[in-house]
């Protein structure tokens, strides 16, 4: 019995993600919440002949509470997407508040659920969820994940393109570490399961790295004001959710990058901090998943000088993004305590 919940289920990511989750036979209940249209999306999906019983709720009458109660895994793609010319950080003003409110709902109604955060800016929204959970006394760093899988999916696709073997893409595994925006996205191409040509250096190497780092911009530009990646993100979110579900069901050795608190595995986190040369509260490295969420945070391992430079460039931006998320929540709680602030 697995209950999966999607918050923001009527949106560009939410609908195809909910469709994919409905196709997973391991999911027995699918709860959909959004501020619009969830009854319709739920009615539509409920006609598909797979096991999940689908329920769609709106905010009035405790809809969020109803959907979240009994949830094992909650995926959050709620919030506004980018338009051309915007950075992910520009979304913080609106999405920060949305994620804080939804995290509060999860802390109250499904504190043990695995929480998969898609809403941007991920580098700041994951710290928001963590702070809200701390405030409610239900924080377990092993259970909160920033979804960076789309970067991994893009890296597989783009590397296979460079190797002129597009059909190999699903088998190409490239760890992408750091975070989920621009220079914080660090592909470790030297660890690709399908080695790149040894002469891929200079401009060709930089072009490939930049394409993985700024792949989101390609989609934003092509959609020309109609939003950002939705279908590839739904695929990536489904991939990661399935990995979490499979690990919970007892499958061993499932490893994938995700933006998590280093406190989720203090020993692994300390080793990673040593490699980074600094202590960040959150970082996306390869993590091994287990029945309780994060089992182990893996080190970066052997990386090239170029990759070390990319990691070095990512660290200060990550630190700022993390602080933005944390401070936002703490400030909101201060304001709630003292409304005159
Ligand atoms: N982590 C990643 O790799 C990626 C993250 N994203 C992010 O995902 C988010 C969603 O993107 P799209 O689906 O394209 O946007 P969208 O605008 O199509 O859908 C967002 C949905 O959230 C809903 N929503 C807004 N406030 C809500 C609330 N308080 N409670 C519940 N639902 C609420 C809206 O009604 C809408 O249906 C954006 O922040 C985007 O930047 C997008 C692509 C990749
Ligand atoms: O680029 C965006 O705004 C959406 C996103 O996170 C991505 O596609 O990686």
Describe this structure in words.
The chain has 341 residues and is α/β, with parallel strands linked by helices. The chain folds into two domains: 3-146, Rossmann fold; 149-323, L-2-Hydroxyisocaproate Dehydrogenase, Chain A, domain 2, CATH 3.90.110.10. The chain contains eleven helices and eleven strands. It has helices spanning 14-22, 38-45, 63-68, 92-109, 122-135, 149-162, 202-213, 215-223, 231-248, 266-276, 305-337, and strands at 3-7, 29-33, 53-57, 73-76, 114-117, 144-146, 176-178, 185-187, 254-261, 282-290, 293-297. The strands form three sheets. It has a six-stranded parallel sheet with strand order 3-2-1-4-5-6, sandwiched between helices. The chain has a three-stranded antiparallel sheet with strand order 9-10-11. A two-stranded antiparallel sheet has the order 7-8. Strand 2 (29-33), helix 2 (38-45) and strand 3 (53-57) form a beta-alpha-beta unit. Helix 4 runs parallel beside helix 5, helix 5 crosses helix 11 (305-337) and helix 6 packs antiparallel against helix 7. The longest helix is centred in the last third of the chain and has 33 residues, at 305-337. The protein is globular, with a radius of gyration of 19 Å. The site of oxaloacetate ion has 10 residues, from helix 8. It comes from Roridomyces roridus. This is Malate dehydrogenase. Residues 3-146 form the Lactate/malate dehydrogenase N-terminal domain. Its EC number is 1.1.1.37. InterPro entries: L-lactate/malate_DH, Lactate/malate_DH_C, Lactate/malate_DH_N, Lactate_DH/Glyco_Ohase_4_C, Malate_DH_AS, Malate_DH_type1, NAD(P)-bd_dom_sf.
């Amino acid at each position: 019995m697995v209950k999966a919940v999607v918050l923001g289920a009527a949106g560009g990511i939410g609908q195809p993600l909910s469709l994919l989750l409905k196709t997973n036979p391991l999911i027995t209940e699918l709860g959909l919440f959004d501020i619009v249209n969830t009854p319709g999306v739920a009615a539509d999906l409920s006609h598909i002949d797979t096991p999940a019983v689908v329920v769609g709720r709106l905010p009035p009458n405790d809809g969020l509470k109803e959907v979240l109660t009994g949830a094992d895994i909650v995926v959050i793609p709620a919030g506004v997407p980018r338009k051309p010319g915007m950075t992910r950080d520009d979304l913080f003003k609106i999405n920060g508040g949305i994620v804080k409110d939804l995290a509060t709902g999860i802390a109250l109604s499904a504190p043990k659920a695995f929480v998969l955060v898609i809403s941007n800016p991920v580098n700041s929204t994951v710290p928001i969820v963590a702070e809200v959970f701390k405030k409610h006394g239900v924080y377990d760093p092993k259970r909160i994940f920033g979804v960076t899988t789309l970067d991994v999916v893009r890296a597989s696709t783009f590397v296979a393109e460079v190797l002129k073997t597009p059909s190999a893409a699903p088998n190409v595994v490239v760890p992408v570490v750091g975070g989920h925006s621009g220079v914080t996205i660090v592909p470790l191409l030297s660890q690709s399961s399908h080695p790149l040509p040894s002469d891929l250096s200079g401009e060709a190497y930089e072009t490939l790295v930049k394409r993985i780092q700024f792949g989101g911009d390609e989609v934003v530009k092509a959609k020309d004001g109609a939003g950002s990646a939705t279908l590839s993100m739904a695929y990536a979110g489904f991939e990661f959710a399935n990995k979490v579900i499979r690990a919970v069901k007892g499958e061993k050795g499932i490893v994938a990058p995700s933006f998590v608190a280093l406190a989720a595995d203090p020993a692994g986190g300390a080793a990673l901090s040593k490699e980074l040369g600094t202590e960040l509260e959150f970082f996306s490295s390869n993590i091994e998943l287990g029945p309780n969420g994060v089992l182990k945070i893996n080190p970066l391992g052997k990386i090239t000088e170029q990759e070390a430079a990319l990691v070095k460039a990512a660290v200060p931006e990550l630190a700022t993004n993390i602080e933005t998320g944390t401070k936002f929540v703490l400030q909101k709680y201060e304001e709630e305590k003292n409304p005159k602030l």
